[in-house]
Amino acid sequence: MDGTIPVHADLIMSASIIPAGKTHNLKIGAGVVNKKQNRNVYVHLTTAHSGKSKVKVGNVTLSEGDAAMITKINDGEELAFESVGSAEAELVVLDSD
After folding, report:
1. Which of 1, 18, 25, 42 has the CA that lies 20 to 30 A from 56?
2. How many CB atoms lie within 10 A of CB 29?
3. CATH 2.60.120.10 correct for 11-96
4. pLDDT of 32-71, one tens digit each?
5. How many angstroms separate the most distant Cα atoms in the chain?
């Protein structure tokens, strides 16, 4: 992908800042990964707003400093990250094989 740093792994790293009350949809694999089935997605909500950030993904709500591993997700599927706290949410996402 243009503008990226090469990593010798089937990995996509992304970061997002989601305003409070908004949702960010992330497409898994971005159409450029080698392994298309059963990917692993690690999500970390940074500690940037004194505990005021929260993100809901699926039926799980993450608080600042929390992380989650989402498994068995396929290239092209989307994850929705909803910022449900009182401050914007800063996420780091690693999508790997």
Report:
1. 1
2. 21
3. yes
4. 899 999 999 999 999 999 999 999 999 999 999 999 999 9
5. 39
